[in-house]
Amino acid sequence: MWVRLKAGTGKYLYLAICYCPSSTSVYASPRGQSPFSILDDDIWEFSRDGDIIILGDFNARIAHHQAVFYDTSEEMLRELDVMETGLSRLSHDVEYTEYGRHVIDMGTAHGLAILNGLQRFPAAGGFTCFPHRHGASTVDYVMAQPNLIASIEDLTVGPDRSG
Fold first, then answer.
1. What is the per-residue pLDDT for 163?
2. How far apart are CA 100 and CA 132, in angstroms?
3. Which domain of life is it from (predicted)?
4. Nearest-CA neighbor of 62 among 25, 19, 113, 134?
5. Which helix (DSSP H) or strand (DSSP E) does residue 108 occupy?
6. % of the chain exceeding 70 in pLDDT
7. Is 132 helix (H, G, I), strand (E, B) or coil?
8. What is the sign of the dihedral through the CA atoms of 78, 84, 85 and 89?
9. Quick one: which of 1, 109, 17, 89 has its CA closest to 55?
10. Which of 9, 11, 115, 150 is most buried (CB neighbours < 10 A)?
11. Per-residue DSSP letters for 20-62?
12. Residue 54 burial by Cβ neighbours in a 10 Å radius (0-12, 13-18, 19+)
């Protein structure tokens, strides 16, 4: 689902609310193929008119990985260090799956950072999935362009215990 908001700047903000079937579902994409191809096409279309925030259940596990960002100010592209940009992540989940690789690739292609576990949001690095008797994992994420992060006052995963 997509929601289009008109920001005070006159620019649009597109919010995507997602659910992707797990890799074991009969509805899953064939192995090696991105399960996010429809979402990817939508992002290409909507990002022409505004900013993008995506949130939902990706059924992907990305451990501490982050999208890759590049310095485009010079002739030769240079990969930016996520520690220097403030985009490094900490997650309680240590597993990295094929769907996770597709999430990271999509974030890299569109300049979308994974917000779960950013130092700026200390309550956002926790688990999001607690299947009965099967441990816990993080499969739900919030992604946005880095320029939007300063506008986000708080991001919490799980119950808000701030009072």
1. 43
2. 22
3. Eukaryota
4. 113
5. helix 98-110
6. 95
7. coil
8. positive
9. 17
10. 115
11. ---TTSTTSPPTTS-TTHHHHHHHHHHTTTEEEEEEEE----B
12. buried
Lookup: tokens for 10: 């006159």
Strands (E), 58-156: 70-71, 78-79, 113-114, 140-144
Task: Give domain limits for the chain.
Answer: 2-151
Q: What is the rounded CA–CA span in Å between residue 124 and residue 28?
A: 27
- For tokens 């990817």, the residue is 40
pTM for this one?
Answer: 0.85
Tracing tokens 């022409």 back to the chain, one arrives at 48
Question: CA-CA distance, 29 to 99, in Å (whole number)?
Answer: 10
Radius of gyration of the chain (CA): 16
Tokens coding 122: 């200390």
How many other CB atoms are found less than 10 A from the CB of residue 157? 21
